[in-house]
Amino acid sequence: MQLGTVDRRDDRPPFRQIADQLRAAIERGELRPGDRLPSEATLIQHYGVARMTVRQAIQELRTEGRVVAEHGRGVFVQQPAPVRRLASDRFLRRHRDAGQAAFLAEADKSGVRPRVDQIEVTKTAPPADVRERLRLADDEPVVVRSRRYLADDRPVETAVSYLPLRIADGTAITEVNTGPGGIYARLEEAGHELGHFVEEVTARMPTTDERRRLELADGVPVLVVVRTAFDTGGQPLEVCDTVKAAPAYVLEYDIPAR
Amino acid sequence: MQLGTVDRRDDRPPFRQIADQLRAAIERGELRPGDRLPSEATLIQHYGVARMTVRQAIQELRTEGRVVAEHGRGVFVQQPAPVRRLASDRFLRRHRDAGQAAFLAEADKSGVRPRVDQIEVTKTAPPADVRERLRLADDEPVVVRSRRYLADDRPVETAVSYLPLRIADGTAITEVNTGPGGIYARLEEAGHELGHFVEEVTARMPTTDERRRLELADGVPVLVVVRTAFDTGGQPLEVCDTVKAAPAYVLEYDIPAR
DNA sequence: AAGTGGTCTAGACCACTGT
DNA sequence: CAGTGGTCTAGACCACTTG
């Protein structure tokens, strides 16, 4: 690939000139996804600057999510994540009847290989915002189901479900394996007719912990979706708090006009 | 405020220990929004480390969007933007009947002072993804309405609407001022009955241009919402491409279960 | 063993902000 | 002016990956 030089009379500081040149090379397609950038040593030599200067240039591209550094290997142009489109019909009954939880049904449709790991089930007191959404009495216990979803072995989402113990107790919901159709199928078997869901969507930068669990590069935001499931009588049955790697998702919602 | 020390036997490198301690102080409320962090010189003294080490710690908090550095003044805990909750009923007819466009109606509800500026109206050929969503014939022209929304004088959202010229021509939609109830009121007056909307939601880091128009700090992601309006016959009438400062918004959607 | 990026030190000069 | 953060230099040692 072709690199320029740093111009000390330029308004931009050297590290930004270097960052701009590398960014341009990526956008021209001279560096393609998966390609390794020139090593720090090469850039130091080429531009005649100190190491911190080229590191700062690379840092800028990392914050933008354009490149990923791999210790001992090099810095690589980011592979765009395969996008998963979540349509608002993904919780329809017919998917549960087919014996599939929402994530699995959705994965099938987009042709990726789904996997679930890091499943943990506990019984405890919920955080305040969950207690409010579930309209729980003080100190009322809940079942907490935590898990991580992977598509083609890349982690894409973490999810934590909260259900009042009085509703979930005695069902497979308190087991690690909930059986065909997932939580919602078990709720309906137990006589709770699902009425509607409310999803609250926000975006933010991940915590250090989330960055680790979702294997996120620097500068990659997350979509936070908090879904509350209500029965036909308007009573909340479940709160599901999910954190998704933002570049991997498009959420689609249908809104009636009247 | 109370600062700890760096422990060289700790698994975490010093810069991360310092970042963790500052982050904890913010979360404990010991450092409140608007407060200045201890200066680099103070931190260097206190922890007995080199300057680059404390800068790396602060860099981590900046990437997380928790603090903002101001050259010559200091590093400050980020002021959380007032959150605007967008409910899925915000496009209901009754708001238009009340003579208010969606943004104004919504602002009233959350008690902020709304403003719209940078309004530009042009006629041109749309980008490919818009042409697809509007099911346009090749080279079919559209009206493009671009504007910026502010809440309490802080920019929170930019929006670009595209409408087929054959639909918008001869209405106030092609004027800078669309009149009471906004675009959708004018469409209904022209005999187009609104049926439903589809919103596609993604999140990403802003471009340099978006960061400037929305006056975003480093490390603040944006929510991108692309809304397509359909008439009762399922024909697309409008595509609206919005970019929102992520921390300022919660999007709320209602999803039927059957 | 050689090459890569990760972390750190101890300085330097500069630009911006406030008094 | 002093105090702040922004940029840069020239080294050092370490941890990880690959051959």
UniProtKB/TrEMBL annotation, chains A, B:
Keyword Transcription regulation assigned: yes
UniProt entry keywords in alphabetical sequence: DNA-binding, Transcription, Transcription regulation
InterPro entries reported for this sequence: Bact_HTH_transcr_reg, Chorismate_lyase_/UTRA_dom_sf, Tscrpt_reg_HTH_GntR, UTRA, WH-like_DNA-bd_sf, WH_DNA-bd_sf
Gene3D superfamilies assigned to the protein according to its UniProt record, in alphabetical order: Chorismate lyase-like, Winged helix-like DNA-binding domain superfamily/Winged helix DNA-binding domain
Pfam families on file: GntR, UTRA
Domain HTH gntR-type positions: 12-80
PANTHER family: GNTR-FAMILY TRANSCRIPTIONAL REGULATOR, MANNOSYL-D-GLYCERATE TRANSPORT/METABOLISM SYSTEM REPRESSOR MNGR-RELATED
Protein name: GntR family transcriptional regulator
Source organism: Pseudonocardia charpentierae
